[in-house]
Design a protein that fits this description.
globular, five-stranded mixed β-sheet, 3 domains, Uridine Diphospho-n-acetylenolpyruvylglucosamine Reductase, domain 3, 8 helices, Uridine Diphospho-n-acetylenolpyruvylglucosamine Reductase, domain 2, binds flavin-adenine dinucleotide, 24% helix, alpha+beta, Uridine Diphospho-n-acetylenolpyruvylglucosamine Reductase, domain 1
């Protein structure tokens, strides 16, 4: 995906807060086609989102919101806490003619060092869970962390989410990515998902509407449907100690075989056939190979880890190098599982 460099209009962007909290905006459409608010000489300010407690913040570094700990600034950034906040955030971006994107835990993203244009809507404060003992269903808002849900389900003796304990993403990210592990995946337990559409209405979708396949769904790359919550069908009634033990075993196995001690995005490439991506990378002799501070993990070859001061560009260049080397040795083209966002 190629996007304009937001830094090119960073210096001249400004908004004013007018009387009664209204925003006085000097619109100009810049050379990149994005609506810009241009008033030289003055600092960029946050914008109170009308009828909410949210602020739309300018130039927020995304390195603090991605598990790689790399990436440049979002042109605009908001953290809605309620469905109404989310609706208002979406309406604001639409009103300004800005692109928008949902960011969950940022655990499957490689964001360009040059940042991203438009409004980044961070869902991690959209929190709510409800365990329905009559139906065995767990209803969880988009920002709920999957590991926490796995722990909560286990403590109740509810089976079905044990596999999710080591996946450091949100419900929204899991529904969109069809996150999975230990031979299970999100689509297996998803009863319904609720989405907010660009006209501000809510829709309830069945998994059969969403073309679920290995680590993908029809919601990927679909900016017109924002996941607000999911309902998972679980199996209550087991002995909590048993479910806790299985959940813990999954977690321990992952910590023994994957580099959780360093920033990463988990598996970088989708698994091809007949071997895993990690197998191809390891057999090509790339474990430990490093560009800048980005390194092919010694523990798991399909992980690229940030050894401290990696840039997004280091990670990107290393991905390209791995792809080229594996293709040369095995005639297999590895496809990224991580979402690459912005200009590289
Ligand atoms: C150490 C580690 C281990 C991992 N292990 C696994 C694993 O075993 N299995 C696995 O599948 N993944 C794994 N991952 C990858 C990652 O955790 C999953 O892909 C996860 O589902 C991403 O969720 P997220 O909330 O971080 O989404 P993000 O990375 O923030 O976003 C991913 C995509 O989903 C979209 N999105 C996010 N929320 C919403 C929403 N509410 N509405 C619409 N779109 C949305 C984003 O726009 C983006 O396109 C691992 C990552 C790490 C760092």
């Amino acid at each position: 995906m190629t996007v304009p460099d937001p830094s090119s209009f960073k210096q001249s962007t400004r908004v004013e807060k007018g009387a009664g909290g209204l925003i006085a905006i000097d619109h100009r459409v810049g050379s990149h086609g994005l609506a810009q608010r241009c008033q030289p000489h003055l600092a960029i300010e946050s914008i109170p989102l009308p009828n909410t407690d949210c602020l739309i913040k300018p130039q927020v570094s995304l390195a603090g919101f991605t598990s790689y700990r790399v990436g440049g600034p979002a042109e605009w950034f908001v953290t809605p806490r309620t469905l109404d906040d989310l609706r208002a955030s979406l309406a604001w971006a639409q009103g300004e003619g800005l692109p928008f994107m949902m960011l969950g835990a940022g655990s499957n993203l490689l964001v360009s060092d040059r940042g991203l244009p438009g409004l980044i809507i961070c869902t991690r404060y959209l929190r709510h869970t409800q365990f329905d003992h009559h139906t065995g269903q767990l209803i969880a808002a988009a920002g709920e962390p999957m590991p926490r849900l796995a722990q909560q389900a286990a403590e109740r003796g509810w089976q079905g989410l044990e596999w999710a304990v080591g996946i450091p993403g949100t419900v929204g990210g899991a529904v969109v990515m069809n996150a999975g592990a230990h031979t299970a995946c999100t689509a297996d337990i998803l009863a319904t998902t609720q989405v907010l559409t660009t006209d501000g209405s809510l829709q309830t979708l069945l998994p059969s509407n969403l073309d679920y396949r290995y680590r993908t769904s029809a919601l990927q790359g679909d900016a017109s449907r924002l996941v607000t919550q999911a309902t998972f069908q679980l199996q209550p009634g087991a002995e909590p100690a048993l479910v806790i033990a299985t959940t813990r075993a999954h977690q321990e196995r992952r910590h023994a075989t994957q580099p959780y001690h360093l920033p990463s995005c988990g598996s970088v490439f989708r698994n091809p056939k007949p071997h895993t991506a990690g197998w191809f990378i390891q057999q090509t002799g790339l474990k430990g190979y490093q560009i800048g501070d980005a390194q092919v993990s010694q523990l798991h070859a399909n992980f690229i880890v940030n050894c401290g001061n990696a840039t997004a560009n280091d990670v990107f260049q290393l991905m390209r190098y791995i792809q080229a080397q594996v293709e040369q040795h095995w005639q297999v083209r590895l496809e990224p599982e991580v979402k690459i966002l912005g200009q590289f």
